[in-house]
From TrEMBL:
<dbReference type="InterPro" id="IPR007115">
    <property type="entry name" value="6-PTP_synth/QueD"/>
</dbReference>
<feature type="binding site">
    <location>
        <position position="31"/>
    </location>
    <ligand>
        <name>Zn(2+)</name>
    </ligand>
</feature>
<keyword id="KW-0456">Lyase</keyword>
<feature type="active site" description="Charge relay system">
    <location>
        <position position="135"/>
    </location>
</feature>
<dbReference type="GO" id="GO:0070497">
    <property type="term" value="F:6-carboxytetrahydropterin synthase activity"/>
</dbReference>
<dbReference type="Pfam" id="PF01242">
    <property type="entry name" value="PTPS"/>
</dbReference>
<protein>
    <recommendedName>
        <fullName>6-carboxy-5,6,7,8-tetrahydropterin synthase</fullName>
        <ecNumber>4.-.-.-</ecNumber>
    </recommendedName>
</protein>
<dbReference type="GO" id="GO:0008616">
    <property type="term" value="P:tRNA queuosine(34) biosynthetic process"/>
</dbReference>
<feature type="active site" description="Charge relay system">
    <location>
        <position position="75"/>
    </location>
</feature>
<comment type="pathway">
    <text>Purine metabolism; 7-cyano-7-deazaguanine biosynthesis.</text>
</comment>
<dbReference type="GO" id="GO:0046872">
    <property type="term" value="F:metal ion binding"/>
</dbReference>
<feature type="binding site">
    <location>
        <position position="16"/>
    </location>
    <ligand>
        <name>Zn(2+)</name>
    </ligand>
</feature>
<keyword id="KW-0862">Zinc</keyword>
<keyword id="KW-0479">Metal-binding</keyword>
<feature type="binding site">
    <location>
        <position position="29"/>
    </location>
    <ligand>
        <name>Zn(2+)</name>
    </ligand>
</feature>
<comment type="similarity">
    <text>Belongs to the PTPS family. QueD subfamily.</text>
</comment>
<dbReference type="InterPro" id="IPR038418">
    <property type="entry name" value="6-PTP_synth/QueD_sf"/>
</dbReference>
Amino acid sequence: MDKIRLTRRFTFEAAHALAHYDGACRHVHGHSYKLEVTVLGQPLQEEQHPKNGMVLDFGDLKKLVTTHVLEKFDHALVLLQDSAPALIEVLQHQGHKLLLTPWQPTCEHMLLYIKEQLLPHLPQNVSLHSLKLWETENAYGEWHAADNL
């Protein structure tokens, strides 16, 4: 049976700063991110099953991405965990939403993190085909499973 790709687009707002960077992105700034998640699989062939004919219910994909990605990133400040201890302490004390990471919060690293968050939660018959993360209207990064065999 043929395999089918399904893609769902998500949006979220987040801020970040790139520690030790030599350009403007070293300052705290925000983006209106767009995330495209593409999965690959064969449609279910069980006539009496409620998901018959589907690779993955779009609603299930939405729940999965919301739970494991969006709830962490949306309206958060993403920072390298040891980059600005005084700022981090003040923001934590004030109750701001922070995502502190062991990696520089670039678009590239965010893609790899998102991949790691999604892979363990996909159904057995569905694979993660690709991710596309738009940081601005004109700039995005992509991860493709086929590039990483």
